[in-house]
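Order emerges. For instance:

***
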Amino acid sequence: MPLFKRMSLKRNKFFIREYQLSSRIAFVGSGILRSFYSIQDKETTTFFLVPGSIAVALRSFVKKLPAFENIQAVVDSELLYITRDDLYSLYKESWKWQQVGRRIIEESYIEMEMRSITLQSQSASERYKNFSEEYKNILKSVPLHYVASYLGVSPETLSRIRKKG
């Protein structure tokens, strides 16, 4: 536990910015973060990170390459983080920590796979319905244009879907 550090992120502050090297992985204790990409000056939200989630720019963290994504606090948040070097030293010390690392990768992959399948196989209305059931609290705390971006629709389309529902 001495290798883990607490971090408070105020609203709109970043855990990682695109083009930076991601050298930390964090457990979200409280608050809400979002992961997003900026493409041609348009932000696309890819994930919301709620308590119990892992915050990491995974490709950057594992491969030591600049991050593609940004991870930003949507509301004041509390994180517990460990550096890449410290985590990898734990991997060397204990097979149990290796299992933790494997589980993090597995869960991240499954989450990305489900996100991809959902975007390709569900209508916007279905995506909103499922989102509102799974993330009830997010809808109360997050600007709706972030939700629209996450669902792959315009804010106007989201507004129409919400009026129908």
About this structure: The two ends are 46 Å apart (CA to CA). The beta strands are 5-9, 14-16, 24-30, 33-39, 42-49, 54-55, 70-73, 77-83.
